């Protein structure tokens, strides 16, 4: 069972609900217009917009209802890149860490840099919807508080978090072989609708997946070099 219905069940409900899939960029607006009861949001963006518009959100966090989750968003690369170009991976992560660490310490400056970069990028072709500068500043002030994890360093992951997520996926029958793809390959991947209809492939035993194989902290810079 996917997270939303399981959250409902864990809170004493039946777990039944109607899932709607409007266009990705329109999901938030369906909630604001009263056309949906709930949706996924980023509190650092839609949450900020709601506060600015005087909209009171009733928020539900997965962990508050016994649903485990991994890390999101994450940076992903191919195992071959890690094997063949480890120095490149380390350099990329060092630069990324430096940027996030700086932004965490300088949220106001980071917001202005973001605004100017977006403006330059869209100089020739304006964005479909212009950015609200004040909202960007407020969003950065909120989000910057979450760039650095409990370890005191950007990017560090804990194996226990991934292990708990794998256990939850396995317990719900969601640890399966097929991947989601917009261009499905027979026997390998399926569409989102296919997953909803049960076209998930064979189940993967929990013992076949080591949580430690899903991530690595080995290529992150040393803490003292992050600032």
Describe this protein's structure.
This protein is 40% helix and 2% strand. The protein has helices at residues 3-10, 27-32, 46-52, 79-84, 86-105, 107-121, 133-143, 159-171, 192-196; strands spanning 179-180, 189-190. A two-stranded parallel ribbon has the order 1-2. Helix 5 (86-105) packs across helix 6 (107-121) and helix 6 (107-121) packs across helix 7. The model has no long low-confidence stretch (mean pLDDT 88).
Q: Give the count of helical stretches.
A: 9
Rg measurement, Å: 20 Å
The shape, in one word, is globular
Low-confidence regions: none
Spatial order of strands in the largest sheet: 1-2
Query: What characterizes the major β-sheet?
Result: 2 strands, parallel
Let me know the number of strands. 2
Instruction: Please state roughly what percent of the residues sit in beta strands, choosing from under 5%, 5-15%, 15-25%, 25-35%, 35-45% or over 45%.
Output: under 5%
Distance between the termini: 42 Å
Q: Overall pLDDT, averaged? A: 88
- The chain-level structural class is mainly alpha
**What string, H for helix and E for strand, traces the elements in order?**
HHHHHHHHEEH
Helical proportion, percent range: 40-55%
Short description:
By secondary structure, the chain is an all-alpha fold.
What are the SSEs and their pairings?
Elements: H1 3-10, H2 27-32, H3 46-52, H4 79-84, H5 86-105, H6 107-121, H7 133-143, H8 159-171, E1 179-180, E2 189-190, H9 192-196
Parallel strand pairs: 1-2
Helix pairs in contact: 5-6, 6-7
Keyphrases for this structure?
single chain; 227 residues; mainly alpha; two-stranded parallel ribbon; 2 strands; 40% helix
